[in-house]
Write a structure and sequence with these properties.
779 residues; alpha+beta; eight-stranded mixed β-sheet; disordered N terminus; disordered C terminus; transmembrane helix
């Protein structure tokens, strides 16, 4: 094969006269350029490490300190109080080759460097103390305490634009909450969900745990918190994600969507060209930080990362920057190089290479087409098959190519998006396709897989163990905006630029899949396919109003939506349920997520009053109490005072000690029938909702956590749109994603009407409440 020969730097043959070397100058040139690019990347990494290492100072501040010390010495002052002379006397130049003036200058530079390092260390300590202060989150606008005003001095230490990792060394460690506080908050969270007798029994279990086993387990957690950067994250990654032996498809992976209303180009190869180039631009650029310092540890594993199956536990493996992607099309796997001679391919060149793959008529090898089903099924069969069939030879080389790729790409033969005679139903199918596809045409173990559909629509599927959705969402927002507003397309819909026809062909991966392995692939597919078919999805963009209208009634948009979800679930099922809302803990080093238990006594009191037709003013007071309670729970979760991660870690310690705790076992086994998450829109500056209102992404979604519950992901897009992704299971007779979506719409309208109704309309509103109550009874 031509491309294989081009990869060989030299050939040799043994003759009677000796060894005859046949050097390939072009191949050697490519080796030289690749090495040059590698060294450039090392230099850039070293530079960034220096910049982030001295933050909040800057490297140039060293020169300022040196000049200041030398200047004061020139005025015959000694700012070192004799230390410079001491350095000079202690044998700076024992050989005597340096003049006295030179020794003085060198001693001054050494002293200046030590002084500079001491200042940096002091500033980092001060910054860490400032970042440990979180009371500012609990204070009302316009009523800021003196302590918080002093805390705003953090701006002084953030004078220059921070880089992505600038704050890493200054972030505080996640604190371990007190046992009594966690137990108290837990009992408050379950009070509206249990009868008096059940709550009394749970209170007794909690009291017994707090007075006996709890303090012993807490001691181990405090010890870990002193030793480790984060007492939760490593156990969370291992026991919640990597030790799960069931399928990660649907159960763990999640997806992100393209623009909802527009497709920048209908040409599949062109869309792939711009999308892949934009993703590579994101990897290459120096991502600036923000004023609010967040841990960026998860960003390190966006690219070149794969989840490797194991019989007992999986592992997440990360490699150095890869220069290619693995591509799947019509049952074949390809390696597509995205760099040539140290240069990143242009969008037009990537389009040209993608088109070559699309035009390739070769059929899949036996067993190749559905090989990806291994990553969709149970983990133990995949781990055993990987060890038996992919540990050597051509299969190992091809599998290594996929796992070490920068990311995975699927060129899908289907058309997806909001189209056709039934656009709403097609969007639902689009979501299902991104979540699970055909169960074998995605590589679910990769950190993320980009999917390019036949009609130019795109999307992605992401593995969950290595990072949470905001990390992937940040990258995907940048890719979408760069694709449409920076790179663009020509009039024919192709990528802009010229094509280099001398680019080598994409490399087809080869396999030798025996019959026994093919049978195991079929068994994994038989596990994954029913799981995928059981998912009921409903995706919709709520455009009647958005966070702009919610802020006008002086309520938290997130709290408003959470109350609407509680009301919708109560109307759908006639009951309240334990509700999971994901909150981030990235204010702390290596922080990931914490749970906000959105179903509270305050939210239940409001919903009961509202559904029973109570007075408007009473309902308004109750909804504000519920919203304020939700905001308090959210702030507690963000500042390390949540409930569930603490209980989880206590449970892990109890398992290590071989001790059973009835309280922990019951507390952690309660089902989350309503699992919710807000996908934040993080880079509004990249989009123009005024001039390009249709260029909005609908966010992303995930599968249901409980078999008899709902998964709800939502995004606040601009000021006027809220997108929802609702998932459930067809096999449960009590759930229906479309019906629940209708309830969400109605709940949103009812809550806004409650908060905006005029006093003169109060009587009519009470009558409406009464009619709602009557309708509920009839149902």
């Amino acid at each position: 094969m031509a491309e294989a020969h081009q990869a060989v730097a030299f050939q040799f043959t043994i003759t009677p006269e000796g060894i005859d070397l046949q050097l390939s100058h072009e191949a050697l040139r490519q080796v030289y350029l690749s090495g040059l690019r590698s060294w450039k990347k090392r230099i850039v990494r070293l530079k960034n490490n220096v910049i982030t290492g001295v933050y909040p100072a800057s490297p140039s501040s060293w020169l300022f300190v040196v000049i200041a010390i030398l200047a004061t010495m020139y005025t015959r002052s000694d700012p070192s109080m004799g230390l410079i002379a001491k350095i000079q006397e202690d044998g700076l130049d024992k050989t005597g080759s340096m003049s006295m003036q030179c020794q003085t200058v060198v001693s001054a530079v050494l002293f200046s460097t030590l002084l500079w390092l001491s200042l940096i260390f002091t500033m980092k300590l001060c910054l860490k103390q400032l970042l440990s202060y979180h009371r500012w989150m609990f204070e009302q606008h316009g009523n800021v305490s003196t302590t918080t005003k002093v805390w705003m001095l953090v701006r002084i230490f953030s004078g220059r634009q921070p880089l992505l990792y600038s704050y890493q060394g200054s972030l505080p460690n996640l604190p371990v909450p007190a046992i009594k506080d966690t137990v108290k908050r837990y009992l408050e969270s379950v009070r509206p969900l249990k009868s008096d007798s059940e709550f009394e029994r749970m209170t007794n279990l909690a009291k017994e745990f707090e007075d006996s086993l709890g303090s012993r387990l807490q001691w181990y957690l405090k010890l870990k918190a002193l030793w480790a950067s984060n007492y939760v994250s490593d156990w969370w990654e291992e026991y919640i994600y990597l030790r799960g032996r069931g399928p990660i498809m649907v159960n763990s992976n999640y997806y992100g969507m393209d623009f909802l209303y527009v497709t920048p180009t209908p040409i599949q190869a062109a869309r792939a060209g711009n999308t892949l180039h934009a993703v590579l631009m994101y990897r290459r650029r120096r991502i600036p930080g923000t004023f609010i310092p967040l841990c960026a540890a998860q960003c390190e594993r966006i690219f070149n990362t794969t989840r490797i199956p194991g019989e007992e536990t999986d592992t997440v493996v990360h490699w150095q920057d890869s220069e290619y992607v693995a591509v799947y099309h019509r049952g074949r796997y390809f390696r597509l190089w995205l760099y040539q001679a140290g240069r990143m391919l242009s969008p037009r060149e990537i389009e040209y290479q993608i088109q070559r793959i699309l035009d390739d008529p070769s059929p899949p090898a036996p067993g190749e087409e559905k090989l990806g089903a291994f990553t969709a099924g149970d983990r133990i069969p995949w781990a055993k098959a990987r060890k038996e069939f992919f540990s050597s030879g051509v299969n190992k080389r091809s599998l290594d190519c996929i796992e070490k790729a920068a990311f995975f790409v699927t060129l899908d033969d289907d058309e997806q998006g909001m189209m056709g005679d039934d656009p709403a139903a097609n969007v639902d199918r689009y979501a299902k396709s991104l979540l699970h596809g055909k169960c074998y045409d995605r590589w679910f173990d990769k950190s993320f897989s980009v999917v390019i559909f036949k009609n130019g629509k795109n999307g992605l599927n992401a593995e969950h163990s290595w990072a949470d959705a905001p990390i992937v969402s940040h990258m995907w927002e940048y890719a979408l905006a760069t694709d449409s507003f920076q790179l663009g397309y020509n009039e024919e819909g192709h990528c802009k630029g010229d094509v280099n026809p001398s680019l080598p062909q994409p490399q087809r991966l080869t396999w030798d899949i025996p019959k026994q392995c093919q049978e195991q692939v079929a068994q994994c597919l038989a596990v994954a396919q029913p799981l995928a078919d059981d998912i009921d999805f409903h995706v919709f963009a709520f455009r009647d109003f958005g966070k702009g209208s919610i802020k006008k009634i002086k309520m938290s948009p997130d709290g408003f939506i959470q109350l609407a979800l509680q009301l919708a679930f109560y109307r759908d099922r006639g009951m309240f349920c334990l509700t999971y809302e994901a909150s981030m803990t990235r204010l702390f080093r290596e922080g990931r997520t914490e749970t906000v238990r959105s179903c509270s006594s305050e939210s239940c009191a409001f919903i009961k009053a509202f559904e029973n037709g109570e007075d408007v003013e009473v309902c308004r007071r109750l909804i504000r109490n519920a919203s304020e309670k939700h905001q308090m729970l959210y702030r507690l979760a963000m500042t390390g005072a949540g409930i569930d991660r603490h209980l989880f870690c206590l449970y892990v310690v109890s398992k290590y000690l071989g001790i059973e705790s009835p309280f922990l076992k019951e507390a952690l086994s309660e089902p989350w029938r309503l699992s919710t998450s807000q996908t934040p829109f993080q880079q509004l500056e990249l989009f123009d909702f005024v001039n390009h209102p249709d260029y909005i992404t609908c966010g992303g979604g995930f599968g249901p956590v409980a078999d008899d519950g709902y998964g709800v992901s939502y995004s606040l897009i601009g000021e006027k749109i809220i997108s929802f992704h609702v998932s459930s299971k067809h096999s449960c007779p009590d759930t229906d994603s479309h019906k629940f979506g209708t309830q969400i719409r109605k709940a949103l309208h009812d809550l806004l009407q409650l908060m905006t109704i005029n006093q003169s309309d109060a009587a009519g509103s009470e009558q409406n409440h009464s009619s709602k109550t009557q309708n509920k009874k009839e149902l």
